[in-house]
Specification:
Blueprint (H helix, E strand, L loop, with lengths): L1 H28 L8 E6 L2 H14 L5 E6 L4 H7 L5 E6 H11 L3 E9 L3 E3 L14 E5 L2 H13 L4 E2 L12 E3 L5 E5 L4 H4 L5 E4 L1 H6 L4 H4 E4 L8 E7 L6 H9 L3 H11 L4 E2 L2
Helix pairs in contact: 2-10
Length: 274
């Protein structure tokens, strides 16, 4: 009886070591799925809906994803930078570059997600040529998408910008404004609601759709599908760019199931990125 009492703790210790050893081996090979819930920040509407489709596919592989919705363009990257999020899925590369420059962060793209062109929308006119003299135009107030909106107005022939400024343009770079347009800068999420108060607005596709806009009825001009600023990316912290699980999540944006969801949900308004 005394011998049994002496041996029992030793056997428990041996078993514990064996279990710990097995756990260590699995972790070292990277075969184990993460126990933590991976948080992906996205703006409300299509971006969040697509992340949700990715999350459903990831769940089949034992990867837990939580979609965290935002109503603005700045907070998601800040949350990613401070570690509150694992990914941000809502922006193009120039926007991310600008955020890094302004905030001293080192966020990186680990993959392309979807193509979402910006458009010019209106409740008052049906063609660019019908925009009256002195009309009020609303554009996004963040630096990158504001410049993108100005570049779109230039492509539509409504204004002319300084040579070479491209999407980095500001209202101060407008060198010709033949229709004397009055340009107002608003938060992107407010642009769809502004259409009753302005003549036209340049609206990123995700906010156009989440705001209930219909390009077939209200759209009068939009970016080409091969426009680089229309290509959205999945952003992560630089230290996580080689994480195998994170790379797999980026791949799932291009899975057949997610592609099918995008095609059936958005009918060509949003398309999978190449």
């Amino acid at each position: 009886m005394n011998l049994r009492k002496l041996l029992a703790p030793l056997l428990v210790g041996v078993l514990a070591l064996g279990i710990a050893g097995c756990g260590s081996t699995s972790s070292d090979t990277g075969s184990a799925k993460p126990d933590k819930e991976i948080k992906i920040g996205a703006t409300a509407g299509p971006h969040a809906e697509i992340v949700d489709a990715v999350a459903k596919e990831a769940a089949k592989e034992g990867i837990k994803i939580k979609v965290v919705e935002f109503s603005d363009y700045i907070t998601p990257d800040k949350a990613l930078a401070d570690g509150s999020l694992d990914f941000a899925s809502y922006q193009h590369q120039p926007f991310l570059n600008n955020f890094n420059k302004q905030n001293g962060t080192n966020l990186v793209s680990i993959g392309k997600t979807v193509v979402m062109p910006m458009g010019i929308y209106s409740n008052k006119v049906h063609d660019v040529k019908d925009i009256p003299d002195g009309a009020t135009v609303a554009i996004p107030n963040d630096p990158t998408n504001g410049g993108r909106g100005l570049a779109l107005l230039a492509k539509a022939g409504l204004i002319k910008l300084k040579d070479g400024v491209g999407f980095k343009a500001t209202v101060n770079d407008v060198v010709d404004n033949p229709k004397h347009l009055v340009i107002k800068e608003l938060e992107a999420a407010q642009l769809p609601r502004s259409l009753d108060d302005v003549t036209i607005a340049t609206v990123p596709m995700n906010y156009a759709m989440s705001g209930g806009l219909n390009y077939q009825k209200q759209g009068i001009f939009k970016e080409a599908k091969d426009e680089p600023l229309a290509v959205m990316i999945l952003a992560a912290r630089d230290k996580d760019k080689d994480n195998a699980t994170y790379k797999r999540i980026a791949e799932l944006y291009h899975s057949e199931a997610v592609k099918k969801f995008i095609e059936e949900k958005y009918h060509g308004a949003i398309t999978p990125a190449e």
